[in-house]
Amino acid sequence: MAIILVRAASPGLSAADSISHQGTLQCSTLLKTKRPAARRWMPCSLLGLHPWEAGRPSPAVYSSLAVNPAGEAVVSSEQKVYDVVLKQAALLKRQLRTPVLDARPQDMDMPRNGLKEAYDRCGEICEEYAKTFYLGTMLMTEERRRAIWAIYVWCRRTDELVDGPNANYITPTALDRWEKRLEDLFTGRPYDMLDAALSGTISRFPIDIQPFRDMIEGMRSDLRKTRYNNFDELYMYCYYVAGTVGLMSVPVMGIATESKATTESVYSAALALGIANQLTNILRDVGEDARRGRIYLPQDELAQAGLSDEDIFKGVVTNRWRNFMKRQIKRARMFFEEAERGVTELSQASRWPVWASLLLYRQILDEIEANDYNNFTKRAYVGKGKKLLALPVAYGKSLLLPCSLRNGQT
Ligand SMILES: CC(C)=CCC/C(C)=C/CC/C(C)=C/CC/C(C)=C/[C@@H]1[C@@H](COP(=O)(O)OP(=O)(O)O)[C@]1(C)CC/C=C(\C)CC/C=C(\C)CCC=C(C)C
Ligand SMILES: [Mn+2]
Questions:
Q1: CA-CA distances (angstroms) from residue 292 to 218, 311, 381?
Q2: What band does 404 get if pLDDT is binned at 50, 70 and 90?
């Protein structure tokens, strides 16, 4: 059995997370590297319109069926993911009615101070890799903040498996081992200190394993797939690698007690924020991903715009490219808009970091425009000044009443 031990030059982690034994995948390097960019296409072909152009209805209103090239009706990715949203929302509602904290093993055999150290380490990693977001978490209650750090670190480590410096050595079997390790930590047998922080977190919050499994599935898909035929395929990928983060986070962030929104609608918004972030990430990184042989943009939309893989490899900004990009940006913004309604429904102290991350990530789209759509050789980057300005704006927005109280139920 292969042992994958990656660390040494890692500025992120220390001895505690480097324990390795046969057959267990070790992922202790958290070097700042880039994930290949990602994508999605809306299965509304049956309606004859693009939802992001016509005003995006709630997922339940979308056609649940898409048509495959053979003309057969198939369940769309959007519908499949919406089923996950419904399941997660139902679980949350059920678990909030049961005494969760008593029903689950506490702290999973970790000594109290060991767990504190584990959470602190997660906080340090989070601070190192996502400074602004880390600052935002400081407004949350201590328990929530630690939980978000633990989730962040698990996601970051998972992402690093396929996106980090050792990505070339990662095989589907290694991901299977990572998933086994996930199952172990969910049943109170964490493998290392950072896993223990997540074990502690799931013992305190009603978090389900499915979004975590699905993120690993996204990493599997990254290993085997370098093209996406249409937005439906891209949507699924975005759900796997980023929508899942939204679903993991809601049970920790909590819904405002005064909110009148349904749990499903809050989960849908969280999903939308993950999708919006990932679409933005993909649009920012077109050139970088192409240099790694990856094109996440929907192939059918490229063809409709008169563009090919070759055009992307050449990396010349033409009017065709500008027009294509305008539509992609418009779609990403629609997902941000959908997410906005949900942020207001979160518990008050959770809203600020989420608003901050939404505003900051969305600004990357403005920067792509400001670069005249040259995302081949220019990285869209939000400057320090704009970043700083987003923080008070986000704070102001976090004070607003939930949308469901302003406009009736969402
Ligand atoms: C407050 C807040 C934002 C909480 C989420 C914190 C958290 C657990 C983040 C984990 C992020 C992570 C490491 C995901 C792994 C996969 C990945 C890297 C996805 C990309 C993130 C951007 O990272 P970066 O720019 O560093 O990308 P590179 O790896 O360098 O390419 C993603 C684009 C997706 C991240 C997705 C989110 C942060 C989802 C946000 C949604 C919520 C927090 C739900 C909010 C709730 C409502 C109701 C709106
Ligand atoms: Mn990455």
A1: 18, 15, 20
A2: confident
Whether 288 maps to a domain, the answer reads yes
Amino acid letter for position 67: V
Compute the distance from residue 392 Cα to the ligand 1 centre, in Å: 21
Question: How far away, in angstroms, is 242 Cα from ligand 1 center?
Answer: 6
The domain total for the chain is: 1
* Ligand 1 pocket, mutate which of 245, 263, 362, 395 (most atoms under 8 A from CB): 245
Q: How far is the CA of 187 from the centre of ligand 1 (A)?
A: 25
CATH classification at residue 358:
1.10.600.10
Ligand 1: distance of its center to the CA of 362 in Å?
Answer: 13
Is the CB of 353 inside a 6 Å radius of any atom of ligand 1? yes
Query: Which residue has 């880039």 as its token pair?
Result: 34
* pLDDT tens digit sequence for 313-338: 999 999 999 999 999 999 999 999 99
Nearest ligand, CA 145:
1
Measured from the CB, is residue 196 less than 6 Å from ligand 1? Answer: no
Q: Which atom of ligand 1 is nearest to the CA of 340?
A: 49
Residue 41 counted as domain residue: no
Tell whether ligand 1 has an atom less than 6 A from the beta carbon of residue 278: yes
208 found inside a domain: yes
> Does a structural domain hold residue 315?
yes
The whole-model pTM stands at 0.84
Q: Which of 399, 382, 15 is nearest to 192 (CA)?
A: 15
Q: Angle, nearest 10°, between helix axes 348-370 and 263-284?
A: 30
Distances (CA, A) of 389 to 47, 140, 196, 368, 406: 41, 20, 36, 19, 26
Domain span at 396 = 76-97+112-402
pLDDT digits (tens, 9 = 90+) for 226-281: 999 999 999 999 999 999 999 999 999 999 999 999 999 999 999 999 999 999 99
Distances (CA, A) of 77 to 82, 83, 84, 131, 278: 8, 10, 11, 33, 16
